[in-house]
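User: Hey, quick favor. My workstation is busy. Could you predict this chain's structure for me?
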Amino acid sequence: MSKGPSLDELLRRTELFGALGDDDRAACADAFRTVHFEAGHVLFLTGDRGERAYLLEDGLVRLTLATAGGRELNVRVAGPGDMVGEIAVLDSGPRSADATALTDVTAHAITATSLAALFKDRPGLAQSVIALLCKRLRATTAQMEGIALHRIEIRLARFLLEQLGTRPASSASGRVPLELGYSQAEIARLIGASRPKLNVALGVLEKTGALKRTADRLFCDREALARLVDEHGE
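Assistant: No problem, here it is.
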């Protein structure tokens, strides 16, 4: 079995700790403790006190909001390298979403008390917090704009490009194999659509050659998806 990324490697990828010097980042790493959650475990609920933030090493965590009408709205699905719950820990406020493990999860947890002590001793963290909050605000604005302005297939293409990241293409077809790890209903909620409309959008992208579907995964043409977004999504 291949060894996963070290805690230092994970911290380097985050907005909050990535820009720190080696000494500061090592001090932050010492404050984390490894935790494990089984699929279905609730990490926290909306309104809970923000006592811990989690840096995901392996697995997927879904963040959701409950609407006034009782519907569940997916905010995002966090994966390896993502942080979950850090906003409530930073401002000592209540949780703004529910967080549930979609799969078995290995994560590194840091307490609000430990983070506060690091802020006192490591002033460089302050600039990182500003960068993190600005990025989150832009991401939220882009998500809301996408749901309001763009057609479903374009929202789906943008979502798939985000999931692809830098994964290498298959040497045979040039397409990138993608196992999302969550259901079509969950994808539909993430892009602000119903499941039937998501199926239609998948069919549209398949007809354009941007993806090919099999029983258990998607094979995505990154360049074709990017062209669709560039031509119709901006």
